[in-house]
Amino acid sequence: MPAERVVRGVRKVGATTLAILQRLGFATRFFAAVVWHSPQAFRRLQLTLREIYFAGVLSLVIILVSGMFVGMVLALQGYDVLNRYGANDSLGILVALSLVRELGPVVAGLLFASRAGSAITAEIGLMKATDQLAAMEMMAVDPLARVVAPRFWGGIVSMPLLAALFSTLGVFGAWLVGVKLIGLDNGAFWGNMQAAVDFREDIVNGFIKSVVFGVIVSLIAVFEGYDAKPTAEGVSSATTRTVVESALTILAADFVLTVFMFRGVGV
Amino acid sequence: MKTAPSPAAATFDTRCANAVELSGVTFGYDRRTILKGIDMTIPRGKVVAIMGGSGCGKTTILRLIGGSLRPRSGRIVVAGQSVPQLDRDGLYALRRRIGMLFQFGALFTDLTVFENVAFPMREHTDLPDEAIRDLVLMKLNAVGLRGAAQLKPAELSGGMGRRVALARAVALDPMLVMYDEPFAGLDPISLGVVGQLIRRMNDALGITSIVVTHDVYESLKIVDHLYFVSEGRIVAGGTPDEVRASSDPFVRQFLDGAPDGPVPFHYAARPLEQEFVRAR
Ligand SMILES: Nc1ncnc2c1ncn2[C@@H]1O[C@H](COP(=O)(O)OP(=O)(O)O)[C@@H](O)[C@H]1O
Ligand SMILES: [Mg+2]
Question: Which of B36, B54, B56, B230 for mutating ligand 1's site (highest number of atoms within 8 Å of CB)?
Answer without folding.
Answer: B56
